[in-house]
From TrEMBL:
This is DUF2975 domain-containing protein. Pfam families: DUF2975. Keywords: Membrane, Transmembrane, Transmembrane helix. InterPro entries: DUF2975. The chain crosses the membrane at residues 42-64, 84-107, 134-157, 169-186. The keyword Metal-binding does not apply.
Length: 200
């Protein structure tokens, strides 16, 4: 009795899209990380220039005359004209400068993290500190914006601009918590890498 022959069938390699995604490298030179690092470098330079210009305007606002100048504060319920006092101008420019400066600090830490990704070393020990700095800076910027908008709504433009509610803080707070969780993940990865190096 003759047994039937079994035919071996090879599985297809997959769809073209999956083959392309498999060939894309996330770490190392020429990877997606290196492209993102270049984009972060450009954004960091632009933010540094904007922050520098705002800082110069903040210094100039101490000396420029403000006679008979008004500013219009707009909100959902309409607008209101207020006299442009030096304190109001300094507060506005200072808040905007601090806002852009905070995000410049965040980009600086991100650039250093992506520099380690570009050389293929994601669990560098310094990345834990950098992620914590990003989370702390993001928390300070979020809290500063919330307090500044509440101050403007209560003191400068009551009835025109509404202060932010607690519910509007949920997304920023969630983002801050994610960054701190990522910092702990990187800390654990750095610890495991250190232990493996000691074992070898």
């Amino acid at each position: 009795m003759r047994l039937p022959r079994l035919r071996s069938t090879s599985k297809p390699d997959g769809a073209p899209g999956s083959r392309f995604l498999a060939s894309v490298r996330g770490l190392g030179p020429g990877s997606v990380s290196s492209v993102l690092k270049v984009a972060l470098d450009v954004a960091y330079v632009l933010l540094a220039l904007i922050t520098g210009v705002l800082l110069l305007l903040l210094i100039a606002a101490v000396f420029i005359p403000l006679d008979n100048l008004n500013v219009t504060v707009s909100g959902d319920s309409g607008g209101r004209q207020l006299p442009l006092t030096r304190m109001l101008l300094l507060f506005g420019l200072g808040a905007v400068t601090a806002y852009f400066g905070g995000f410049m600090l965040i980009l600086r830490s991100l650039r250093r993290i992506f520099r380690t990704l570009t050389v293929g070393d994601p669990f560098h020990p310094h990345n834990v500190r950098r992620l914590r700095q990003i989370g702390l800076t993001l928390a300070v910027v979020t809290g500063g914006v919330w307090l500044a908008q509440g101050f403007v709504a209560a003191r400068l433009a009551p009835g025109v601009m509404e202060p932010q509610g607690i519910g509007e803080l949920l997304t920023p707070v969630f983002s801050v918590l994610i960054v701190f969780v990522l910092a702990e993940v990187f800390r654990e990865g750095a610890r495991l890498r250190r232990e493996s190096e000691l074992t070898i």
